[in-house]
Amino acid sequence: MIAPQACARELGLSEFTIHRWIRDGKISAVKLSARCTRIDGNSLADYMAANRFVPGEKEAQPDQLKRQKNTAIELAGQA
């Protein structure tokens, strides 16, 4: 069980983001008292694995490709 503050610090996120994930049901947590919440480590690991971001793996969106193609054609026509 992990405190939201420690989780936020380790992930480089705000504590608000961690509490939002809990509220939205993205990660499981247990409320031990009015001011004491603990995050399930397995739930957090599963969420992070399913939503990991690896720079450079994002594919260009179709609109972006179309815009780039049109810009290239316009530039070729000006030459």
TrEMBL record:
It comes from the Bacteria. Residues 8-52 form the Helix-turn-helix domain. InterPro entries: HTH_17. Residues 58-79 are annotated as: Disordered. It holds the Pfam family HTH_17. This is Helix-turn-helix domain-containing protein. It comes from Candidatus Dechloromonas phosphorivorans.
